[in-house]
Amino acid sequence: MSVSSIPSQGRALVVDDEVQLRRLLRLALESKGYEVFEAGTGSLGLSEAAFRHPDVILLDLGLPDMDGLEVLKRLREWTETPVLVLSVRDQEATKVAALENGADDYVTKPFSTAELAARLVAIQRRRKTPEEPALELGKLFLDLAAREVKLAGAELKLTPIEYNLLKLLARNVGRVITQKQILKDVWGPNATEQAQYLRVYVAHLRKKLGDAAGVQIRNEPGIGYRMVVEDS
Q1: Is the peptide bond before 110 cis (omega within 30 degrees of 0)?
Q2: pLDDT tens digits, residue range 113-161?
Q3: Measured between alpha carbons, how far is 67 from 209 in angstroms, rounded to an integer?
């Protein structure tokens, strides 16, 4: 397939101070149909984001002029553009901090270009339809207006908590959501330390969805959960 025949995925901004990595990412992203822009510092990255209006941003945390988390915070003051964090830092606390400050996903270096492409597709798909009245993921169908869920065409009976948990995961498909954020959104601000609630209800949901739903609720140990469509 020629480059001209590859479907466009939009604009990607790579903010990383490693020149060789930026070149690698440019080649990988262009092969997937992205128009790629680069920035080697956080300040330049913020300027490019404002000027280029990218469809996705790949952000390194170890930048020479400012911490990547600060760049992320400033971006989230004015844009909801999907941000995929790239970093050599693999501590759970760093991943949680990035996600809680607005990152859509987190990939630890080194990584495969196939994994990178899959993560980008997932977070872009989520951002494109965050307010849809209905969601269809695998064999799962959520009518958000009617608060109804169907699995392979049959109604799926859920408790209010199970429904709210499923809706949150489905509307953020492909994205890791921290335990604290899930507990806050589903149970309220006073439940952010009650992780046992979450484990129990995730187990209930997994059992009701079974193996044929076409989606999975995956655990990111020490961080949170993400829903993935199995063919993505």
Answers
A1: yes
A2: 888 888 888 888 766 554 568 888 889 999 988 889 999 899 999 998 9
A3: 41
Q: Is 141 inside a domain boundary? A: yes
| Cβ–Cβ < 8 Å for 21, 29 | no
Tokens of 72: 């992320």
Question: Which of 131, 130, 152, 132 lies closest to 141 in space, CA to CA?
Answer: 152
What does the pLDDT look like over 101-122, one tens digit per residue?
889 899 988 888 888 888 888 8
Q: How far is CA 117 from its chain centroid?
A: 12
Taking CA 223 as the corner, what is the angle to CA 80 and CA 13, rounded to the nearest 5 degrees?
30
Rounded Cα distance, 70 and 58, in Å: 14
pTM of the model: 0.71
Burial class of residue 98 in the structure, from the number of CB atoms within 10 Å of its CB (0-12 exposed, 13-18 middle, 19+ buried): buried
In this structure, the answer to whether residues 64 and 83 fall within a common structural domain is yes
Tell me whether residue 1 is in a domain.
no
